[in-house]
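Input structure tokens:
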């Protein structure tokens, strides 16, 4: 198999794919595929419950938080959060650190007053504004930030301190990449297709006392209280994606959990950033303390070499290194399923390419 640096859907652990293949026709002797099971039958309920238990173990999710397996990916949450947490006429604070913050802000603006409490727009999203500079509003329904900017390559390695105001964060691209104190959050959401599983699924972790606040106009399907009350099965859930997510949670536990995977992730990103910083050909402009472990965007100083770089990478089985269309350049995503061997292969290629063409 090739080395997959795709930003999303991203690489999945090979062991998980093999297990899914082995069980595709007949899961655990049930006689049918998971994709064919009734979501209300005992076999799927067992799969769903095990997945939630494993996710709770991995992230040490407190009992006063509900775990929801929803549809609509990360983007649906941009509307679902305000529909549930922003009262009519209310105000919410958002931190703008890049492309995905902007998406969240634009959607939230349809539902109420949005205060941009801090933004790094003016320096081209090269840093995360320190909290001392944030201008939070006096009566905010919640504070929202994007814990990892998948396109701009920024990541919070700290949790904002917002007192009693509910803290909401988009962890689509960095959930499960290292330990996280979930108790500090009112709500965490994540589109699945990076560290959780295949696309089509979103995981929401929400404090139970925040359920039941949805606006009257909120569609039933988007009301967190309805989802929680039905065990995320108000309608037919994306069963196969949920099952694969469960296998990935198991795989993560077998790797030693989040402390162990964080050590691997720390080494992976360091190797790549060190290579970029030591080179005269590759550049990453994000301030060192705010660099993402999961998504490493970089440019070639001479962008006429971009095509040759990508072609050479593909020949070596280093796939999906082309940067997002909004930014150009390159991007290597280093999700949990991207091995250290993959990063070694990438770094070796980058060094060789610079020697020959730089
Ligand atoms: N938020 C972040 C940080 C993302 O990286 C993405 C997608 O890459 C999204 C939200 C949107 O997720 P989806 O495509 O599942 O709607």
């Amino acid at each position: 198999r090739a080395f997959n640096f795709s930003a999303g859907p991203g690489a999945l652990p090979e062991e998980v794919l093999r297990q899914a293949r082995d069980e595709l026709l007949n899961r655990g002797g049930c006689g049918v595929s998971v994709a064919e099971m009734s979501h209300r039958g005992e076999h799927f309920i067992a799969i769903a419950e095990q997945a939630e238990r494993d996710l709770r173990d991995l992230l040490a999710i407190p009992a006063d938080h509900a775990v929801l397996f929803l549809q609509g990916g990360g983007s649906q949450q941009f509307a679902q959060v305000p529909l549930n947490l922003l009262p009519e006429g209310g105000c919410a604070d958002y931190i703008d650190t890049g492309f995905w913050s902007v998406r969240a802000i634009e959607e939230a603006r349809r539902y109420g007053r949005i205060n941009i409490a801090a933004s790094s727009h003016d320096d081209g999203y090269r840093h995360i504004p320190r909290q001392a500079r944030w201008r939070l509003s006096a009566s905010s329904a919640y504070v929202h930030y994007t814990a990892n900017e998948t396109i701009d390559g920024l990541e919070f390695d700290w949790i904002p301190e917002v007192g009693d105001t509910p803290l909401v964060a988009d962890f689509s691209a960095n959930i499960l990449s290292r330990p996280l104190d979930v108790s500090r959050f009112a709500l965490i959401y994540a589109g699945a297709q990076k560290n959780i599983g295949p696309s089509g699924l979103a995981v929401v972790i929400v404090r139970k006392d925040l359920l039941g606040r949805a606006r009257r106009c909120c569609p039933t399907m988007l009301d967190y209280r309805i989802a929680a009350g039905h065990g995320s099965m108000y309608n037919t859930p994306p069963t196969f994606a949920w099952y694969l997510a469960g296998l990935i949670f198991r795989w993560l536990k077998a790797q030693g959990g989040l402390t162990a995977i964080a050590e691997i992730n720390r080494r992976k990103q360091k190797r790549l950033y060190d290579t970029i910083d030591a080179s005269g050909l590759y550049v990453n402009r994000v301030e060192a303390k705010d660099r993402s472990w999961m998504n490493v965007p970089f440019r070639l100083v001479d962008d006429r070499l971009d095509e040759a770089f990508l072609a050479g990478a593909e020949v070596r089985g280093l796939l999906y290194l082309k940067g997002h269309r909004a930014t150009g350049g390159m991007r290597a995503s280093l999700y949990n399923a991207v091995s250290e061997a993959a990063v070694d292969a990438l770094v070796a290629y980058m060094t060789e390419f610079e020697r020959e063409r730089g």
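The chain has two domains: 14-254, 257-357. The chain has a mean pLDDT of 97.
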